[in-house]
Amino acid sequence: MLCPAMLIAVASCKPPIELTPPPADAPAALVALSGASIMIGAGDIASCTQILSRGTAALVDSVLRADSIAKVDDVAITMGDNAYTSGTAAQFTNCFTPTWGDSEKRILKKLRPVPGNHEYYSADAAPYYKYFGSAAGSVGKGYYSYDVGAWHVIALNTEILVSPLFTDSASKAELDWLEKDLKAHKTLCTVAYGHHPRFSSGWHGGDPSLGRMWQLFYDNGVDLVLTGHDHDYERFLPMTPAGTVDSAKGVTQIIAGTGGEELRGFRKAILPTSAARIMGRAGVLLLTLGKAEYRSAFLEIGGRIWDQSGGKCH
After folding, report:
1. Residue 48: is its pLDDT beyond 50?
2. Whole-structure pTM value
3. Candidates 3.20.20.10, 3.30.1370.110, 3.60.21.10, 3.30.470.10; CATH matching 38-312
4. CA 166 to chain centre
5. Alpha-carbon distances of 48 from 31, 42, 309, rounded to whole Å
6. Using an 8 Å Cβ cutoff, are 278 and 265 in contact?
7. Calpha distance 182→145 (Å, rounded)
8. Model confidence over 123-162: pLDDT tens digits?
9. Is 64 in contact with 40 (CB distance < 8 Å)?
């Protein structure tokens, strides 16, 4: 079906949502890794016109509270587009604060965000940097790294790499920083996260301009890449920068743009490396990070556990 406005390109039509049916063997509990750390988060989160972010915030808070009781090392992350529709100061105050930014929840104490394209609808994403402060990295850059348990974690500002708002020199500076950071942290296990996916079967699709970033991931043994941007959940097989399966050195990408904003469907042409897809379900990605392996799962609002998977670090 064509878009109602015939002047709009057909490619801009949002694919319809066909609610993904729950798996027949939905587990009642997560598969645990002894002594592991926890990373939990999502992208595309808080909108004053949607209520789903209240549910995802409650879910993240409940996991972090359980971690605190069990004395588990953990971190909460966002994969961009934190406050809709334009990342204004008012939208952070009125949309994000009542949900993921609620001071009575544990989220802000643990949160390490990255910006998305909607943050830059406000000039220089200034409200984003002011709201999150030092947790967001250097103002104007928004990329940084840290460690969680045995894992090295890289937070990226992919808007710098894909948007015409930024110069080639700004893009080069981030990629040069990424290369130096990867070479300086030769841990066995590494996870990176940003807003835009290199590969996607969703409405926006993947962005080939992230190819050099992926080449650095591949050359330096990054295990996982987490993104948002498409408002669905999609997990891929381990891939090369060209998008072919590589079970030995490949990078596994997981999209979880399901934090609370309007959900969307998938395109008819599903990428051949797409291993699991969920649409029409709000929730968060949970990673259990062990010393040499990981487990992943999608936690839906209401408690259902989807797509438990995992792998070993390389």
Report:
1. yes
2. 0.94
3. 3.60.21.10
4. 22
5. 35, 17, 33
6. no
7. 10
8. 999 999 999 999 999 999 999 999 999 999 999 999 999 9
9. yes
